[in-house]
Amino acid sequence: MTVTPGRRERKKAATRRNIADAALRLFCERGYDAVGIREVAAEADVAVTTLFSHFASKEALVFDQDPAFELHLTDAVAERSPQEPLIPVLHREIHAQVRHCASDEAAPLWELVDETPALQNYERSMRLRHADALAATIATDLGLEETTTACRTIARFVIDAFSLGREASDPERAVDEIFRMITAAWDAR
Fold first, then answer.
1. Three-class SS of residue 76?
2. What is the 3-state composition of the chain as percent helix, strand, coil, each rounded to the nearest 5?
3. Structural domain includes residue 1
4. What are phi and psi of 154, to 5 degrees?
5. Which residue spans does the record list as DNA-binding (predicted)?
6. Phi and psi for 45 in degrees, rounded to 5?
7. pLDDT of residue 82
8. Would you say 127 and 163 are in contact if contact means Cβ atoms under 8 Å apart?
9. Of 19, 78, 142, 143, which one is least surrounded by beta carbons within 10 A?
10. Which of 156, 174, 155, 154 minimizes the C-alpha distance to 98?
11. What residues make up the domain containing 172?
């Protein structure tokens, strides 16, 4: 059963989307380093405090879908049926994420990231955070009391599969190739 968000939640989501869109538009037009937070707030017609109530940093403006990415991965693990193997579920989820990020619509964002060192650093820290969250979810799913090295390793491989797939000339093929190795590693644990 899907719960429809209330008016307040819809308004907050619309404000967040408006801020992120304004930021990306300005960053793509003028370059990430040439645009300040006040300019983004003015473009989105919000106060700077409102901007910061939705985004913790300037870098977070670019990665506004970051929380959803992590949630999709952890939910894919936690909500799969008991008879469904772990690695194929993650393989499907990474394929879906790479397809989205390799789309023409996402190209300006990734071009911006690829040419901006501050955003590259932020993305690397996000990947580590995603890997930690995924590893903890895998450990919980397996009924483990703590996150093992095997869980952390597979989680990092999965997150790196996303990044490597996104950067590949043939993203689908790259993800499949990486997941053959992930499957072998998981089976060997």
1. helix
2. 80, 0, 20
3. no
4. -60, -40
5. 36-55
6. 60, 50
7. 86
8. yes
9. 143
10. 174
11. 66-187
What tens digit of pLDDT does each residue of 30-43 get? 999 999 999 999 99
| Interatomic CA distance for residues 35 and 37, integer angstroms | 7
CATH code (residue 120): 1.10.357.10
In a domain, 108, yes or no: yes
Give the DSSP letter string of 90-146: HHHHHHHHHHHHTSGGGHHHHHHHHT-HHHHHHHHHHHHHHHHHHHHHHHHHTT-SS
Give dist(CA 38, CA 51) in Å, integer: 9
Residue 106: predicted pLDDT: 86
Tokens of 79: 């909500």
> Per the domain annotation, does 2 fall within a domain?
no
What is the domain count for the chain? 2
Give the Cα separation of 19 and 179 in Å (integer). Answer: 36
CA–CA separation, 169 and 181 (whole Å): 19
